[in-house]
Specification:
Blueprint: H1 4-7, H2 62-74, E1 76-78, E2 89-91, H3 95-99, E3 106-108, E4 117-119, H4 123-127, E5 135-136, E6 144-145, H5 147-150, H6 155-234
Antiparallel strand pairs: 1-2, 3-4, 5-6
Length: 235
């Protein structure tokens, strides 16, 4: 049997196990010991619960389960891709790592849009002909290339075109800024003229107001001079 502690040691691919949960005995290089075979699923023991009563493994047996798990993890198995040509054998605990690098592992094409399934060893060959192949230019210009455009791609020409496009955009931006500055300058000049006219109007109004005040003062002083003369005549 196997506990959760044992799972941390045996990193086995799910396909290694039988439908009932045990490790498929046919995958082991040497026939597993009879005592390691589950009487229910006929696979090498890996259950967290007793296959007979379905009760969890007693906590007092954890250490025993741990040692048993390590022993099973050291047993050598054949690659699940043996039918496709892989002749590698390795400890059960290394099965997951092997599957990540096995040349006979069936994997999907990594290029978006391609639905091909192929062996890992054939990936490079497939990539040379896959119509969905896309890669950035290895010279670093940033262009995404396909097989069709790769042969005609010229980094210098591409960079030259991008430079000319950017230069054209910069000129357009500079021209637009110049027009905006001229409009702003024209608006400011108009505002200055308006302010000047307002100031002139205020000065004229001030002059008129002062003149009116002077006239009022003159009339007041004239009236005050006439009053004593009239009083003397009556005497």
């Amino acid at each position: 049997m196997e506990t959760r502690l044992g799972k941390d040691i045996i990193m086995a691919d799910p396909e290694v196990s039988t439908q009932s949960g045990g490790y498929d005995a046919e995958l082991f290089v040497d026939t597993p010991d009879y005592d390691l075979i589950c009487t229910i699923c006929q696979g090498v023991l890996r259950q967290e619960t007793c296959p007979c009563c379905r009760k969890p493994v007693n906590a007092t047996l954890i250490f025993v389960m741990f040692k048993l798990s390590k022993s099973i993890g050291r047993m050598k198995i054949k690659c699940k891709n043996e039918i496709r040509g892989c002749a590698e054998t390795f400890p059960l605990s290394e099965q997951y790592c092997h599957s990540m690098s096995c040349l006979y592992e069936l994997i999907p094409c990594p290029y978006q849009g391609c639905r091909a399934q192929l062996l890992r060893r054939d990936l490079d060959t497939h990539a040379r002909h896959c119509e969905h192949w896309r890669q950035p230019c290895h010279m670093g210009c940033g262009t995404i290339l396909s097989h069709r455009t790769q042969a005609q791609h010229n980094c210098y020409k591409q960079l030259r075109q991008e430079y000319e496009v950017r230069q054209k955009n910069h000129r357009a931006i500079a021209t637009a800024l110049q027009r905006k500055m001229r409009r702003m300058q024209s608006t400011m000049a108009h505002m200055k003229r308006q302010i000047g006219l307002i100031c002139e109007s205020l000065e004229v109004m001030d002059d008129l107001h002062e003149a009116e005040e002077e006239e009022d003062l003159g009339e007041s002083s004239g009236n005050s001079n006439e009053t004593p003369s009239s009083n003397m005549g009556s005497c």
